[in-house]
């Protein structure tokens, strides 16, 4: 099997998250996409609701798609021990006979190439990545300008995807709309929209 690990805050999960996962799965012939909400304990994340609410919304959003699965591995880790390298090692052990891919945006590829991630060398050496285009980022240039990335570019490590459509509706936009009593209804799954209204999240 080919499995994509899709980590994000999902605060809240949006239709763009679902569309991105679907596009990546179709283009890369993935058999499964695992939605991996990050931990609220992480110092580099400023989250706007609880792990419980984010977890509930992700599960609601994906419940009708057999290709999608949610996993709370990172939510359960201590903040000091959450690293992508360790997370991917966990899933490689969980699925020893399958191909594991980390799904990320080109902006994160830049950061890894610059050595900003924990154990960047081991992370790139031991894993495979599906990298989605971001506006104004030349992914091939990012790889060629980073000794770390280009020396591990064996034709299999990085699968570069131009989604072909700029959908930049963000979770922060949706949060702002809820906070200002706007109407973001069709930017996220209907079940999540109703859940946010019911629990008065992002007020």
TrEMBL record:
Which reactions does this protein catalyse? nicotinate beta-D-ribonucleotide + ATP + H(+) = deamido-NAD(+) + diphosphate
Q: Kindly tell me the pathway this chain contributes to.
A: Cofactor biosynthesis; NAD(+) biosynthesis; deamido-NAD(+) from nicotinate D-ribonucleotide: step 1/1
Enumerate the SUPFAM superfamilies for this protein: Nucleotidylyl transferase (SSF52374)
In terms of Pfam families, this protein maps to: CTP_transf_like (PF01467)
Question: Where does the record place the Cytidyltransferase-like domain?
Answer: 5-176
The protein's UniProt keywords, in alphabetical order, are:
ATP-binding, NAD, Nucleotide-binding, Nucleotidyltransferase, Pyridine nucleotide biosynthesis, Transferase
Q: What class of enzyme is it?
A: transferase
Q: Which family does it belong to?
A: Belongs to the NadD family.
Name it: Probable nicotinate-nucleotide adenylyltransferase
Species assigned in the record: Terribacillus aidingensis
């Amino acid at each position: 099997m080919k499995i994509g690990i899709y980590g994000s805050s999902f605060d809240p999960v949006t239709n763009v998250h679902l569309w991105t996962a679907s596009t990546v799965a179709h283009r890369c012939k993935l058999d499964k996409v695992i939605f991996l909400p990050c931990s609220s304990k992480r110092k580099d994340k400023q989250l706007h609701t609880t792990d419980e609410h984010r977890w509930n919304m992700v599960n609601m959003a994906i419940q009708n798609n057999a290709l999608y699965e949610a996993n709370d591995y990172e939510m359960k880790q201590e903040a000091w021990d959450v690293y992508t390298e360790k997370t991917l090692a966990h899933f490689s052990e969980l699925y020893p006979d399958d191909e594991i891919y980390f799904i990320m945006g080109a902006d994160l590829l830049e950061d890894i190439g610059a050595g900003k991630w924990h154990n960047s060398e081991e992370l790139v050496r031991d894993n495979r990545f599906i990298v989605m285009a971001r506006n104004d980022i030349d992914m091939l240039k990012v790889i060629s300008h980073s000794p770390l990335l280009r020396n591990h570019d064996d034709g299999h490590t990085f699968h570069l995807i131009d989604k072909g459509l700029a959908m930049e509706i963000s979770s922060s936009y949706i949060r702002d709309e809820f906070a200002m009593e706007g109407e973001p209804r069709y930017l996220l799954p209907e079940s999540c929209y109703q859940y946010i209204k019911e629990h008065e999240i992002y007020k």
